[in-house]
């Protein structure tokens, strides 16, 4: 959708998608010109629909059925592949990426080991959410069995990816960002790179260490893209696997294109994917922890209350408190985050520290405050 909107210079674009949400969820992803429609604009559109306050007019329409072919051709013609042949396992998750990613990688000369590439909205093999480790288990097993260079898993609508290296280790979105940022900063010294509040502190530190400008921002593809445009950033990303390339691309989150850039990198230098994170300090980090709450109203009230509690009461060893999206409490030896999900009645948590015990302590402190806030507002 985004690719067609940019390359055909359309006035608008609409996609029907529920992404990684359960199958009974659906929604629209919308563009006006080159920009995503979100926030207040979506609410204004909703009000117009509810009032049935429509404009009428006359026009024509054309059915375009070559979008996939044009996409594969455009990217493959501009790809900067090396001479080393690659073998990549691809798990489409029975989502939208499957029919396009295989011909795209074939066009780059990659040997593809396919898994679940046929679209099926019932998701019979596993849920297409690459932020959940168990959804990558089949991919991990296949990478090891095939001796592949790495494996890629996609979400339902192809804007997020999860990666398993040749040793079976999962590389979450923030670690992929380190790999991509290092490569871009070699070509564009001083470039700005945007990461969201759930990302590892190692990402922001590594960007600065390699001469870039690291910016922390809110979660959400529309918010990230707006910030990229404001700052002229070359790259942005989220822990969830959204990767936005302005460098050599259009600046939107495209997991298939991100897979291409990963293939380029490994095919050029021949090093195992795991070595591209050399020098990144070992930390202990939780996965994204999602806590169901009774309603969106409770979610937002609880998130606000937790942020205020840290501001007012503090906590031992707090170095800084970041409230651009929920609350990220930064300690000398780690950090913890609580924020409201953009798409579901869920509070999202994550914690990272220099030791396992400290990580667990930060997580426990966050859980205690979450439980108290949810109990208060669920009454």
Describe this structure in words.
The chain has 3 domains: 2-51, no CATH class; 78-277, Alpha-D-Glucose-1,6-Bisphosphate, Chain A, domain 3, CATH 3.40.120.10; 284-378, TATA-Binding Protein. Strands 13, 14, 15, 16, 17 and 18 form a 6-stranded antiparallel beta sheet that branches. A 5-stranded mixed beta sheet has the order 5-4-6-7-8, sandwiched between helices. Strands 10-9-11-12 form a 4-stranded mixed beta sheet, with helices on both faces. A hairpin with a 5-residue loop joins strand 11 and strand 12 (243-245). It has 11 helices and 18 strands. The model has no long low-confidence stretch (mean pLDDT 92). Helix 10 (296-313) crosses helix 11 (356-378). With 379 residues, it is of the alpha+beta class. The N and C termini lie far apart (43 Å).
User: Could you give the distance between the termini?
Assistant: 43 Å
Alpha carbon gyration radius? 21 Å
DSSP strand tally: 18
Helical content, roughly? 25-40%
Number of helical stretches of at least 4 residues: 11
Structural class: alpha+beta
What is the class of the largest domain in the CATH system? Alpha Beta
Task: Find the CATH topology of the largest domain.
Answer: Alpha-D-Glucose-1,6-Bisphosphate, Chain A, domain 3
Quaternary: single chain
Order of helices and strands: HEEEHHEHEHEEEHEHEHEEHEEHEEEEH
Q: What percent strand?
A: 15-25%
The CATH H-level homologous superfamily of the largest domain: Alpha-D-Glucose-1,6-Bisphosphate, subunit A, domain 3
Q: Assign the CATH architecture of the largest domain.
A: 3-Layer(aba) Sandwich
Rough outline: globular
Q: Low-confidence stretches at least 5 residues in length (pLDDT < 50)?
A: none
Q: Let me know the largest β-sheet.
A: 6 strands, antiparallel
Provide the residue-averaged pLDDT.
92
Number of domains: 3
